[in-house]
């Protein structure tokens, strides 16, 4: 399998595009809600717009907090991150009326790149259950060499065929764009940790795990 390389500028630009894509929807909804409040005087409509602004603000905040660690520097080189903080931001990002997160990872202070890898693996797991379901996280091993196993179970759970080669560092003939950068970046993080990541359908769910 051939490998794909990106220079630092392209990688940064594509990750920024991915973050912007995630934030467009909730921020756009906030703008729409403000416009409705400015134009409509009906009390019920004003209340609806206010609730939309509140909900979208919470969503935007949750996405920003998650992306800050998943894609950002999150401290200086060699920094460590509390897995309890990772759990808090992950619950804010994933949990809603359709999706629940079962976090079975013991609280620990882990190397920054391991936490970044974990969050990016969770992103991929969440994408395999578009109708919602349960995402279950378990640790593999302990300490600075902790690995992760994540099972996503839900209706029509499915692995997109482009994901495994991207995790392995192969962009294929299509190359890497803003839609494909996240699983590619997950593979980069895994290799930086001395690991690789596998993903496969198992029963009614999908399992993504380090090895």
Number of distinct beta strands: 7
Strand content: 15-25%
Secondary-structure element sequence? Answer: HHEHEEHEEHHEE
Rounded to the nearest angstrom, the distance between the terminal CA atoms is: 18 Å
The rough form would be described as globular
Provide a count of the helices.
6
Unreliable spans are: none
Summary, kept brief:
By secondary structure, the chain is of the alpha+beta class. 50% of the residues lie in helices and 18% in strands. The protein has one domain: 2-Layer Sandwich (Heat Shock Protein 90), CATH 3.30.565.10.
Q: Could you explain the architecture of this structure?
A:
The chain has helices spanning 8-39, 43-70, 83-94, 112-127, 163-167, 181-192, and strands at residues 80-82, 99-103, 109-111, 133-140, 147-153, 197-202, 205-210. The protein has a single domain (8-210), classed as Heat Shock Protein 90 (2-Layer Sandwich). The protein has 211 residues and is α+β, with helices and mostly antiparallel strands. Strand 4 and strand 5 (147-153) form a beta hairpin. It is globular, with a radius of gyration of 18 Å.
Describe the secondary-structure layout:
Elements (H helix, E strand, L loop, with lengths): L7 H32 L3 H28 L9 E3 H12 L4 E5 L5 E3 H16 L5 E8 L6 E7 L9 H5 L13 H12 L4 E6 L2 E6 L1
Parallel strand pairs: 2-4
Antiparallel strand pairs: 1-3, 4-5, 5-7, 6-7
Helix pairs in contact: 1-2, 2-3, 3-4, 4-6
